[in-house]
């Protein structure tokens, strides 16, 4: 295993994190030490309503992401999410969901993110709908929680507190390395941190392995 340690800071409903998902897939399958931290950007006062102009902004941004990364954004997503008069971008539920799989490691956490990203960017399902989140979690929890238990956990204040703690860890590391947005990939060796640019690997995700050692 490499002596490098990696930290992947993301938000499930960040379009660029979705665009970089193939890169993350390569990393989490490699023989490296990697930790995923959900930033939980869109919650509380940070929620964004599509009808207030954010939908138009996101639609333009998503077109750039699709061009640069090849990741699909369906017309169903555009119609049902970006052009919705009621949809809000809120990553609270998915941040709580990430807490439930966080102990299993980055590969499982990214698997959850991918399922939820497909539900949003391809199937056009709302970020405020708990049903896709529960459906995505069940197979990843290997039967350790019933549907009712998952539903109760997602609604619990204790899970929100844990999600906040993870987001604060992510924010502190971002401040330390001078990063202002997600996704942020940090490589740490002997206590020294370096931010790895993901843009060079959008078209060839497997080449991210060139950064090892």
TrEMBL record:
Protein name: DSBA-like thioredoxin domain-containing protein
GO molecular function: oxidoreductase activity
InterPro entries xref list: DSBA-like_thioredoxin_dom, Thioredoxin-like_sf
Organism: Motiliproteus coralliicola
DSBA-like thioredoxin domain: residues covered: 10-194
Highest taxon listed in the record's lineage: Bacteria
One matching Pfam family: DSBA
């Amino acid at each position: 295993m490499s002596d490098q340690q990696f930290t992947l800071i993301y938000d499930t409903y960040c379009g660029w994190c979705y665009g970089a998902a193939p890169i993350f897939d390569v990393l989490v399958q490699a023989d490296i030490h990697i930790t995923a931290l959900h930033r939980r950007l869109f919650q509380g006062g940070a929620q964004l309503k599509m009808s207030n102009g954010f939908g138009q902004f996101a639609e333009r941004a998503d077109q750039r992401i699709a061009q640069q990364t090849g990741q699909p954004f369906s017309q169903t997503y555009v119609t049902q999410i970006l052009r919705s008069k009621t949809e809000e971008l809120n990553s609270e539920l998915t941040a709580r969901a990430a807490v439930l799989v966080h102990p299993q490691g980055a590969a499982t956490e990214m698997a959850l993110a991918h399922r939820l990203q497909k539900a949003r960017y391809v199937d056009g399902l709302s970020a405020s709908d708990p049903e896709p989140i529960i459906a995505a979690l069940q197979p990843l929890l290997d039967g350790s929680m019933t549907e009712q238990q998952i539903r109760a956990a997602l609604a619990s204040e204790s899970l929100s507190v844990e999600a906040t703690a993870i987001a604060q860890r992510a924010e502190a590391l971002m401040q330390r390395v001078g990063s202002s947005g997600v996704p942020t990939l940090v490589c740490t060796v002997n206590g020294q941190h370096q931010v790895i640019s993901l843009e060079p690997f959008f078209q060839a995700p497997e080449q991210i392995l060139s950064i090892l050692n």
